[in-house]
Amino acid sequence: MKTFARWFLLPLGISFAFAVSAAKDPNEKAIESRQAVMKLQSWYAGPLFGMAKGDVEYDAEMAGNYARHLHIMATVDGGAMWPEGTDNVAYAGKTRALPEGWTNWEEAGKKAQALSEATAALAAVAGDGLDALRSKIGPVGKACKGCHDDFRAKKK
Ligand code: HEC
User: Fold this and answer.
1) How many CB atoms lie within 10 A of CB 50?
2) pLDDT at 107 over 90
3) What are the tens digits of pLDDT across the range 66-97?
């Protein structure tokens, strides 16, 4: 009986531990949350880039509103969503964040700051006409790309 209980309960205990750890890995929650912030940045930035290019008709109200929200998304307190050890080596397949983001934390912070400044400048004028929007959108695109080039793995 003793042996049976041990053999029966051991694998049960192991699978239980796995189920609990898989459901509660706080790192995965952090990864999903930062990706959600990125998705929202993309949601707001998309039509603004589209207007600047002439693919989307300029709409002053929408431009001002989206630029304001893009700036909000660029400045959410997301630091804790980037815990150390959540790079694309440790969490292959779940994240595209390169380890350089942590070994070069200061530089990554500067890139985030650049986006914050660029979106602030855009938000200040985006509703004032297409030319005004165009005059400030370049640095926003550069800020997204500048960080992705250095700190995000290419899509496989
Ligand atoms: C400070 C660096 C940085 C800046 C600035 C930045 N990104 Fe990202 N972005 C990343 C990293 C790193 C990832 C990978 C995150 C992950 O997979 O965990 C990412 C991922 C993404 C993704 C994929 C999200 C997903 O669902 O996996 C999108 C979309 C995106 N970024 C859009 C943008 C847009 C649009 C901007 C500019 C408005 C921007 N990003 C600015 C670093 C940055």
Assistant:
1) 13
2) yes
3) 999 999 999 999 999 999 999 999 999 999 99
Tokens linked to 62: 């929408």
| Of 20-24, 87-91, 119-123, minimum mean pLDDT range | 20-24
- Answer whether 96 contacts ligand 1 (Cβ < 6 A): yes
Give the mean model confidence (pLDDT) for residues 26-45.
98
Alpha helix stretches (DSSP H) within the chain: 2-24, 26-53, 60-74, 100-103, 105-125, 130-151
What's the Cα-to-Cα distance from 66 to each of 42, 88, 91, 129, rounded to whole Å?
A: 11, 31, 32, 14
Compute and round to an integer the Cα radius of gyration of the chain.
Answer: 22
Nearest CA to ligand 1 atom 35: 42
Overall fold of domain 26-151: Four Helix Bundle (Hemerythrin (Met), subunit A) (1.20.120)
